[in-house]
Design a protein that fits this description.
Helix content: 25-40%
Strand content: 15-25%
Number of strands: 22
Distance between the termini: 34 Å
Oligomer: single chain
Largest sheet: 9 strands, mixed
Number of helices: 12
């Protein structure tokens, strides 16, 4: 069954209305990947978004092209977390062919920037996070029978940390790579246009609805792009376009906040870079410290993660201090390197922490966002699945659990959420080598636990937010969570 009537693109005499089979709002990795998949199948499709991508995550991503390195105890103990891991594993199987197809259809010669990933367990992290995370990575690798090997940390080329930050253990995952995100975006855009797709260098400001069905979008210029299917893949900005929904429906979709991150593009003093990704397990609510080679002696050093109700375009001094201080964990001479660029991106984080994938309350309006740190890696999988959904074909029903209009997904118990918030907040201090009296950490831990417990109790008697949303304790986020939970209480 085909959902599109298949009209060719047309323009009226005034030039202010264009007609397509589908319009994708958002020109990041997910939006371009879906556009490419649809265009290759003969669908007349437009992808919208400013070429500068002011708030995008894709454009500044370290783009670690793997999944097992992201495994954590919390991910593995949750049914929805394990579903997300399974998505990552399936996406990994698609990447070789996906990369080759983009290279063949574009002017790019290379899209991947690293071969394999080295996970280090160093002396900076805390056992409840780093050691447990390292063990979770191995458990996930073993469960999926994925190859890896233990390494002698002293024999890892390029790695030269300060003695007090040296790794105690290390393992090499040969099938976990990295992607040059700039090359990927260029390649996707070129391949999309060559396949017959249309890029429009504007943002959408409104979704149009007629008789309960999406009919297109209004652009900043007030031009209209008409289509019977509209896909919101604009990352943190996707929720801004839901004003067309009935209020009770919109209220039951988790709002999207920004997990904004800061990273540095550095040129090393001796113009060397590792051949592999080198990273720690996830820690302090972030994707661990990681170094990704980018070629010509440049490396990507990332990345921080802070939760904000509004996307950011500039870095805080605190973020830079954390990154510069972390150089001692990789190479002590990195402080002598040249900073080519300070990069800031905004990861789309739904209020319950899980993706928003599916139709949104009215016919023809879809959300394909909220993927947090997984969107670039999952892009070939999600693009193929959404193309099948839009075309009325057989699709992956396991992703239906992430339908946008849903009850809050509960990944952690209340106690686990509380303890995770406390441990990761304390880990920020240890990672920054705080100098405090030895008897202060237990006192700080006690204060944090009491503060987070009160916040948790005030939010809702049963619903539990992601630990990072609890820990950042932002009044606007707390209000958004309360409204989301209240909408589900009223609907039940």
């Amino acid at each position: 069954m085909r959902l599109f009537s298949g009209p060719q693109m047309s323009t009226n005499n005034s030039g202010d209305s264009k007609i397509f089979d589908a319009v994708v709002v958002g020109n990041g990795t997910l939006g371009l990947s879906l556009g490419l998949e649809l265009a290759r199948r003969g669908v007349q499709v437009a992808v919208l978004g400013k070429a500068s991508r002011p708030f995008a995550a894709s454009a500044v991503a370290g783009a670690m092209n793997g999944c097992f390195g992201e495994a954590t105890p919390g991910l593995l103990q949750s049914e929805h977390g394990r579903t997300k891991l399974a998505m990552d594993v399936r996406a990994t199987a698609l990447w070789n062919d996906w990369e080759q197809s983009i290279i063949e259809a574009s002017d790019e010669r290379v899209i991947r920037s690293a071969e394999g990933t080295i996970i280090i367990l160093n002396t900076i992290g805390v056992p409840e996070i780093d050691t447990a995370g390292y063990a979770s990575i191995r458990a996930a690798l073993d469960e999926y029978d994925e190859p890896y090997e233990d390494l002698d940390p002293d024999q890892i080329d390029w790695l030269a940390p300060e003695p007090t930050s040296r790794p105690m253990k290390a393992m090499f995952i040969p099938n976990e790579h990295a992607v040059d995100s700039a090359a990927l975006l260029r390649g996707l855009a070129t391949a999309f246009v060559r396949a017959g797709g249309t890029l429009i260098d504007e943002q959408a400001v409104e979704v149009l609805v007629d008789n309960g069905r999406a009919t297109g979008v209004v652009l900043e210029s007030t031009d209209v792009v008409s289509a019977p299917s509209v896909v919101l893949a604009a990352g943190v900005a996707s929720g801004d376009l839901l004003g067309c929904l009935p209020p009770d429906v919109r209220a039951r979709i988790p709002a999207i906040v920004s997990g904004y991150g800061v990273a540095l593009l550095l040129e090393t003093e001796d113009s060397t870079a590792p051949d592999h990704v080198i990273r720690t397990p996830n820690r302090a609510f972030a994707c661990g410290l990681h170094v990704v080679p980018r070629g010509d002696g440049t490396i990507y050093l990332g990345a921080t993660n802070n939760i904000s109700t509004q996307p950011r375009t500039s870095a805080r001094i605190d973020d830079l201090n954390l990154l510069l201080g972390s150089t001692r964990q990789m190479r002590s001479d990195l402080v002598e390197g040249a900073v080519h660029r300070i990069m800031v991106g905004n990861r789309p984080v739904p209020l319950d922490g899980f993706p928003l994938l599916g139709e949104v309350g009215i016919d023809g309006l879809w959300m394909m966002t909220g993927t947090y740190r997984d969107g670039l890696h999952q892009s070939p999988l999600i693009a193929k699945d959404f193309a099948a959904r839009l075309l009325g074909e057989e699709h992956d029903t396991t992703l239906d659990v992430f339908t946008p209009v849903r009850k809050p997904i509960q990944a952690l118990s209340r106690q686990d959420c509380l303890e995770t918030a406390v441990r990761h907040t304390l880990a920020l201090g240890y990672e920054q080598d705080w100098g405090i009296p030895v008897d202060w950490p237990p006192l700080i831990e006690e204060q944090l636990r009491g503060m987070f417990q009160r916040s948790l109790d005030e939010l809702h008697p049963t619903f539990v937010p992601p630990a990072e949303l609890l820990a950042f304790d932002d009044p606007e986020i707390t209000a958004a969570l309360s409204a989301y939970y209240r909408a589900h209480d009223e609907a039940s």
